[in-house]
Write a structure and sequence with these properties.
single chain; alpha+beta; two-stranded antiparallel ribbon
C-alpha cells in the first residue's frame, strides 16, 4: 500500500487535511507514549518482535493482521478497522463515510 494507495495525491491530501494520519511500523523499537500509556517493543525471538501499540491496533480475532488501517475517534476508540490491502478508490469511499 505504501507504493500504491499511499502514493495517491488525493488520498494523501485527504488524510493530511481531514484526519491525523500516522504510519506505524509494527517492528518499531522505540517507546511510544499514546493516551497516557507508554507502549514498547516486545521481542518474540532473537531478531523478531512486535510493538505493543501495533499489537493493540492491528489485532483482529486475537491475531495481528497486516496491513491494518485503524481509525480512532477523539476518545481513542477504534471506530473502523480494515485488515487487508485497500486500493485508492475504495479508501476514498471509506474516508468519505468516516468524515
Amino acid at each position: 500500500m505504501q507504493n500504491t494507495t499511499f502514493k495517491n495525491d488525493s488520498i494523501i491530501h485527504k488524510l493530511n487535511t481531514e484526519f491525523y494520519f500516522i504510519e506505524l511500523n509494527a517492528e518499531e523499537k522505540s517507546h511510544i507514549t499514546f493516551a497516557n500509556h507508554t507502549f514498547k517493543f516486545k521481542p518474540t525471538g532473537t531478531i523478531t518482535g512486535i510493538h505493543e501499540l501495533a499489537e493493540q491496533l492491528a489485532t483482529v480475532d486475537n491475531k495481528v493482521v497486516y496491513p491494518t488501517l485503524c481509525f480512532l475517534n477523539v476518545d481513542y476508540e477504534i471506530v473502523f478497522q480494515y485488515n487487508q490491502f485497500i486500493n485508492s478508490k475504495d479508501l476514498q469511499i471509506i474516508l468519505k463515510r468516516l468524515k
